[in-house]
Specification:
mainly beta; three-stranded antiparallel β-sheet
């Protein structure tokens, strides 16, 4: 997913989301708690969002590049 730098990703789900830079889930993720927000800085323009919960569905909103 290509996120517009300088915008906010909002976790609208009921579980934490793990945000990774790039297209793979390597390294230490940025964790956005349920109901939380994270600013998408430079370097987070291409991200992978992972939901570690096997029981709850994750959901988020963000501004994407057109």
């Amino acid at each position: 997913m290509s996120i517009k730098p300088g915008t906010t990703l909002t976790n609208i789900g009921k579980t934490d989301l793990h945000i990774y830079t790039g297209r793979i889930t390597n390294g230490i993720p940025l964790i956005v708690h349920a109901g939380g927000q994270a600013g998408m800085q430079k370097g987070f323009s291409t991200i992978t969002v992972a939901n570690p919960s096997m029981l709850k569905t994750g959901a988020f909103t963000a501004t994407v590049n057109a």
